[in-house]
């Protein structure tokens, strides 16, 4: 493991998703303690996207932005909101120069699948419709997210393809949760990895699915056809239950004719990019912004 990250492991909390209310409180305290970057170069606005129910979003609008991304936060489908995602959404907007529409989707277990997916799809449609108002090219709208949010983003891309939804220019998937079966080597053997373990992943999927059978829109690895999807960047962490499903999904996208950039970050664990003092974490965050900037410029 990266030595700068390893030093933090004794201090890194291990959230217990068996109690979602307590987990949300701990996650909120941790996430909001992370300093946000300088946002003087952008406009930030809270809006409600009309849907059933309406979806809260926080819009980060850098000056002279040409493209946008609908961004889904992490938190195991159980934790997180636009406040906990603020440090990362602001950084993504700052580095990429893109408009970031951060989505406060409904959380499980109170709102199991497909609630979060429906919220994300509603925000994608709204962003496409409001492209002129947002000052972006409607043909340069991406979807993306971290962890659970990355899985939702991949589901949105599949849904938009199948349901003739708004065109998606790019997928930015960072350590996405894609496979509910947990049959990969990394999923089966990540029993004591920092922050995210096999048991925690199992709890997250249980809350998200609510006892229902997983569909490809919930667990994108279940999709039998990945052709016709937008180009993608997939980032994975070495010590993470999601690692092998991330790599396998990238390979399947490539085999389906989808252009993919895959970066397996050596020495990292799930969510370790939050440790901003580590050099590898700074490189991870910078790369996400740089990848999005290049993708929306082409």
UniProtKB/TrEMBL annotation:
InterPro entries: AB_hydrolase_3 (IPR013094), AB_hydrolase_fold (IPR029058), GDXG_lipolytic_enzyme (IPR050300). The keyword Ligase does not apply. One of its GO terms (molecular function) is hydrolase activity. Gene3D superfamilies: alpha/beta hydrolase (3.40.50.1820). Keywords: Hydrolase. It holds the Pfam family Abhydrolase_3. PANTHER family: AB HYDROLASE SUPERFAMILY PROTEIN C4A8.06C, ALPHA_BETA HYDROLASE FOLD-3 DOMAIN-CONTAINING PROTEIN-RELATED. This is Acetyl esterase/lipase. It comes from Prauserella marina. The lineage of its organism: Bacteria, Bacillati, Actinomycetota, Actinomycetes, Pseudonocardiales.
């Amino acid at each position: 493991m990266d030595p700068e990250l390893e030093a933090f492991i004794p201090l890194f909390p291990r959230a217990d998703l068996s109690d979602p209310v307590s987990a949300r409180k701990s996650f909120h305290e941790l996430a909001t303690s992370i300093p946000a970057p300088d946002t003087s170069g952008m406009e930030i606005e809270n809006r409600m996207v009309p849907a059933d129910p309406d979806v809260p979003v926080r819009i980060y609008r850098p000056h002279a932005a040409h493209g946008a991304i609908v961004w889904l936060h992490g938190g195991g489908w159980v934790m997180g909101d636009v406040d906990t995602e603020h440090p990362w959404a602001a950084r993504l907007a700052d580095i990429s120069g893109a408009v970031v529409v951060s989505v406060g989707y409904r959380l499980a277990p109170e709102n199991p699948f497909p609630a979060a997916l429906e919220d994300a799809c509603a925000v994608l449609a709204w962003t496409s419709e409001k492209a002129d108002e947002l000052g972006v090219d409607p043909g340069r709208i991406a979807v993306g997210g971290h962890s659970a949010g990355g899985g939702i983003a991949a589901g949105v891309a599949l849904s938009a393809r199948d349901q003739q939804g708004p065109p998606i220019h790019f997928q930015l998937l960072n350590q996405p949760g894609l496979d509910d079966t947990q049959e990969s080597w990394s999923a089966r053997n990540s029993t004591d990895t920092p922050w995210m373990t096999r048991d925690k992943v199992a709890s997250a999927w249980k809350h998200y699915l609510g006892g229902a059978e997983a569909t490809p829109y919930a667990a994108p690895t279940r999709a039998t056809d990945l052709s016709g999807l937008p180009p993608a960047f997939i980032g994975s962490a070495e010590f993470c239950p999601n690692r092998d499903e991330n790599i396998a999904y990238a390979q399947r996208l490539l085999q389906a004719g989808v252009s993919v950039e895959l970066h397996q970050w050596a020495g990292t664990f799930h969510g370790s990019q939050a440790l901003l003092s580590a050099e590898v974490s700074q490189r991870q965050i910078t790369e996400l912004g740089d990848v999005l900037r290049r993708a929306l410029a082409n």
